[in-house]
Amino acid sequence: MTTATVNGITIGYDDEGAGDDVLVLVHGHPFDRTMWRPQVEHFSRAGWRVIAADLRGYGETTVVSGTTPLSTFASDLAALLDHLGVERFVLGGLSMGGQIVLECARTFPERLRGLVLADTFAQAETEEGRRARNDMAERLLREGMAGYAIEVRWKMVAPHNPVVAEFVSQLMHNAPPEGAAAALRGRAERPDYTETLATITVPTLVIVGSDDEYTPVGDAEYMHERVPGSTLVVVEGAAHMPNLERPEVFNRAVEDLLAQT
């Protein structure tokens, strides 16, 4: 296990490949960095240095209860990259990870060479959504992750992909309830990143599964229309985890982006 102590926590991370071209990948909720294994392996073999870390509260990183706003996740990421001597990089994230990417684009755009916004959305939470996230946070603390993982597995992954669904389900079962609850509370209060979209000047890939119920194609189109010069890719037959469901399509789209950076 590779770890670093920054921002008062210990972060578990993978750092594979070598060179000055760096790709950083940010996982979603309630997963950990192993959701990026197909991409870490593929792009590190292709000549990129690939870094994927467990977010605060997940995987092998310190669990902090309470509320974890997106700004804290972004600060942790910046501190880890400082520790690793990485100044500029291509940054990609899925779902909550994509919202952390947008927070990074808002707070330190000068460090970014390119962006991947996968199965995510930019708008602030609705009042109904805030209640639902806070209620779910309380439920996870009360009941643990098992019931939630069973309920949502076929929204995370399209039904024709049972092997991936089992892997994703295990990731959700393994997530610490305290960390997941803290992230949910933080996302309930997230800002609206719509104005940030228009300020993005680096090559940007917006990618989404065609069957994603959580962040449907319309959410991807919303971002694509507002990020100047961005590329939109819809991964047919995938739900919320196209990087795992159809990694060959996902990786090809990211390759096209990396060629522009």
Write the layout of secondary structure elements.
Layout: E1 3-6, E2 9-16, E3 22-26, H1 37-45, E4 49-53, H2 70-83, E5 89-94, H3 96-107, E6 112-118, H4 127-143, H5 146-156, H6 162-174, H7 177-188, H8 194-199, E7 204-209, H9 217-226, E8 231-235, H10 242-245, H11 247-258
Helix pairs in contact: 2-3, 4-7, 5-6
GO molecular function: catalytic activity
Protein name: Pimeloyl-ACP methyl ester carboxylesterase
Organism: Lentzea albida
Question: Which characteristics define this entry?
Answer:
Rossmann fold; 46% helix; single chain; 261 residues; alpha/beta; Epox_hydrolase-like; catalytic activity
Describe the 3D structure.
- The structure is a single chain.
- With 261 residues, the protein is α/β, with parallel strands linked by helices.
- It has one domain: Rossmann fold (3-Layer(aba) Sandwich).
- Helix content is 46%, strand content 18%.
- Strands 1-2-4-3-5-6-7-8 form an eight-stranded mixed β-sheet, sandwiched between helices.
- Helix 1 links the parallel strand 3 and strand 4.
- Helix 2 crosses helix 3 and helix 5 runs antiparallel to helix 6.
- The radius of gyration is 17 Å and the shape is globular.
- The two termini are 31 Å apart.
- The model has no long low-confidence stretch (mean pLDDT 97).
